[in-house]
Amino acid sequence: MQEEELTPRRYMSWPVLSLLVFITVIGFENIFYPFQNQGLSVVVNWVILLVIYIVPYALISAQLGTTFTRADEGGGLATWMRRTLGDTWGYWTSWIYWAQTLPYLVDVSNAVIVALSWMILGDNS
């Protein structure tokens, strides 16, 4: 039997993981537009946002993610609601999350098309 060489697993570093989560929750637009309009004074708002929104959001998600760990359920909002409040709440959570994601996807695709138009044509025509 041929012995396979085991390679150590590679994990994401904390800075990369935290920036991934930050951009997923906040988004790029919410970083660039205020900075463009307000300048460096927006950094104070970012610190306040970090303390009162991002840190509690991360702690809540971490707690719920480690509390509900059954592999057959998949995790996420619907699992958290279904396991705590019942199947009806789990269903409505899934449905509302899906319904609010559709306009977001349309908005993101529109932003990508506009950005590509500016990049290719240079005048957004």
From TrEMBL:
GO CC terms, sorted: membrane
Keywords: Membrane, Transmembrane, Transmembrane helix, Transport
Taxonomic source organism: Lacticaseibacillus paracasei subsp. paracasei Lpp71
Signal peptide start-end: none
Main location: membrane
Protein name per the record: Inner membrane transporter ycaM
Topology of this chain in the membrane: Multi-pass membrane protein
Compartmental location: Membrane
Residue stretches in coiled coil: none
Taxonomic superkingdom: Bacteria
Transmembrane segments: 12-33, 40-60
